[in-house]
Amino acid sequence: MKERKRYIQEPVGSFFLFGPRGTGKSTWLENHFPSALWVNLLEPDTHRRLAAHPEHLVALLDGNPDKRTVVIDEVQKVPELLTVVHQYIERKQGYRFILTGSSSRKLKRSGVDLLAGRAAVSFSHPFMASELGESFQLEDALQLGTIPLILAAPVPSETLSGYVMLYVREEVMAEGLVRDIGGFSRFLEAISFSQASLLNIAEVSCECEVSRKTVEGYVSVLEDMLLGARLPVFSRRAKRALIKQVKFYFSDCGVFRSLRPRGPLDRVEEMDGGALEGLICQHLRAWVDYSSAKHQLFFWRTQAGTEVDFVMYGESQFCALEVKNSAKVTRRDLKGLKAFREDYPESRVALLYRGKDRLMIDDILCLPCSDFLQALTPDQPII
Predict the structure, then answer these.
(1) Backbone φ and ψ of 17, nearest 5°
(2) Rounded to the nearest 5°, which phi and psi values hold at 297?
(3) What angle do CA 157, 222, 224 make, to 5 degrees?
(4) Considering only Cβ atoms within 10 Å of each terminal Cβ, which end of the chain, N or C, has fewer?
(5) Rounded Cα distance, 378 and 90, in Å
(6) Integer Cα distance of 163 and 157 in angstroms
(7) What is the DSSP string of 290-332?
(8) Which residues lie below 8 Å from residue 217, measured CB to CB, with a gap of 6+?
(9) Which pTM does this prediction carry?
(10) Across the strands, what pairs with 311?
(11) Rounded-to-integer distance, Cα 132 and Cα 146, Å
């Protein structure tokens, strides 16, 4: 795949760059910092040497005095290196450290607290449609997702099928994040049914035959590995009784597809709907992390069942989006947006659907999903 301009943010000074495996962190850094001193912890020799003697990083830095920008790739594999990095940053000797990670779990437990705020945090996400440009095809994205590693593979579908197992093997097993790999594998299959739905820990626990507490830990592992996220309810100045549950989404709709079991009792529309809503979610989460103003992503649902799929709230945007996996729009589809706009007249609302026409129904904008995704750009209005 040809090189594409990414929206990944470059903070001033040292920074962490977190993102799921295969989202292009290393490629982006190689293009932006070609002369940096590179410490790749995926290389067995490098990993073994620094894991045994973290202080060897000092020898590397002293042996390359002309290299003041230092990239440590997959730093979570040797979190003890953060102590050395912290010392160099404190000394203010002109070093700039860029630390990548596809999991934050071991870093959080290392006690260094992500360098105690001495380094900014940036994120890498799967491709946004506007990064792919004319090559973005909605139907392909719904089947394969938009992870760069997968899209660049000779046979993307085969790479996708092995992507999660790569994570399980190299992150979960190798780092000892989970004791019961069999239970975790059953959990991955069970939680795929929670995509774009209210997360019911008890149901997932029953389905994968592990305790509720264990499932809660597994969900946290998914979040720390940047493979999944929980979406909270928007409750600011609530005028109606709202639910307290969260919704769950995988970080890429292709990952959801690869984990979701398929059989005679599984409806294609359910999987397509989960994939479409997941694709919108991953784009909105990327928009949040790539934009300079601070925003948060929510959903909205009353105890009576009235719901809006996404609410974006922050310094420059307050909008609500409903997603419909249908080529047609009816006034009934607008019920949730109307209720939300009634409670929050300051907001902008829109419905995203699978049709081809841009419509205005009851003063609510209805947009084709593909048009919305291709126009979504960081620091620009969402609707």
Answers:
(1) -125, 105
(2) -110, 135
(3) 120
(4) N
(5) 33
(6) 10
(7) HSSS-EEEEEEEBTTS-EEEEEEEESS-EEEEEE--SS---GG
(8) none
(9) 0.94
(10) 298, 320
(11) 9
Place of tokens 């995704």: 373
| Contact between 157 and 144 (Cβ < 8 Å) | yes
Contacts of 352 (CB under 8 A, 6+ apart): 280, 321, 322, 323, 324, 366, 367, 368, 369, 372
How is residue 336 written in tokens? 């949730």
Amino acid 51: pLDDT? 94
Q: Is the pLDDT of residue 114 over 70?
A: no
What is the tens place of the pLDDT at every residue in 265-297?
A: 677 778 999 999 999 999 999 999 999 999 999
Instruction: Sketch the domain layout of the chain as residue ranges.
Output: 15-123, 129-375
Calculated CA dihedral for residues 74, 80, 85, 86, nearest 10 degrees: 130
Angstrom distance (rounded) from CA 352 to CA 370:
9
Sign of CA dihedral 290, 250, 301, 241: negative
Q: 15-123 is classed in which CATH architecture?
A: 3-Layer(aba) Sandwich (3.40)
Cα–Cα nearest to 195, from 228, 225, 167: 228
Residue with tokens 């050395």: 84
